[in-house]
Amino acid sequence: MQRRNLLQRTIALAGASAVTPWVHAQSAYPHQPIRWVVPYPAGGGTDVLARTVAEAMRPSLGQQIVVDNRPGASTNIGAQIVATAKPDGYTVLSADNAVLAYNEYLFTKLPFHPEKDFTYVGGLTRFPLVLVVNPNFKEGLTFKDFLAYVRAHPGQVNYASPGNGSPHHLAMEMFKFRTKTFLTHIPYRGAAPAVQDVMGGQVPCMFLDLAAGLSVIQSGKVKALAIGSARRAPLLPDVPTLAEAGVKDTEVYAFQGLLAPAGLPADITARLNAELNKALAAPDVVKRMQDFGMESLAGTPEQFHAMARAEAKRWGPIIKATGVKLD
């Protein structure tokens, strides 16, 4: 009897030792492809950045990262998909100003809460918005000329944006609020047609993000009057900041970061954050971001969370004061 019990225990221990490595191998993160939701159409700046960083993260993670474009409802469709996904590290989101700072004020009711329904993984990038005009709007135009003209013609000067609630739209609303001017908003479906009409003179001006607008600014197809960053951009050293031009407290830029569903385990959050920061430091990613005037937001989840909530608090009063709503 004792010999039989000893044999059974030996077999059981042998079985456990054989199974344990398999269990650990199956539970190691990640063991399947990761879905990266982008709440904008394919081909835009957010999509291109996500694909660039995802490809840089892939070798270390050892899994494919599949970009899934889910545009619509001012990013709410893509954000809701991630907010309601399983918090297992296999669904992440490119989140920008809209998800993190604007929509809670632009919509009466959101299908998610930007703080309660997400785990903040880390920052991606930040890039300033630039006030641009058609070069023929006025001969020898300077920022001072532009401001004097719109003040003398309230409501008669139109401005373009890629759409209602976009960073470009709200940048001009903040500009109007700070300068006590009135320009008429002409929303477009995307940045490309908006810029096209500013270049063509159908609409005289807009705020354009540096990442998308650098080439048309450098080519002279539009004229940059002022930039919304705290310091002048190295790629546009002759363009003054809005503060230098006399408009204080008007820093306007687009920013992006990586989110996951709320409740993501701490070890998976740490792994994703480490791989994200590593990718942002990769030479090809660094060069691509520099070429587009993008600033890396590499850092901890806590740093990105603090920055995003500070932006929400900064924009809330402006959005409420201007009365902009999307529902």
Automatic annotation (TrEMBL):
<comment type="similarity">
    <text>Belongs to the UPF0065 (bug) family.</text>
</comment>
<feature type="signal peptide">
    <location>
        <begin position="1"/>
        <end position="25"/>
    </location>
</feature>
<dbReference type="Pfam" id="PF03401">
    <property type="entry name" value="TctC"/>
</dbReference>
<dbReference type="InterPro" id="IPR042100">
    <property type="entry name" value="Bug_dom1"/>
</dbReference>
<dbReference type="InterPro" id="IPR005064">
    <property type="entry name" value="BUG"/>
</dbReference>
<protein>
    <submittedName>
        <fullName>Tripartite tricarboxylate transporter substrate binding protein</fullName>
    </submittedName>
</protein>
<keyword id="KW-0732">Signal</keyword>
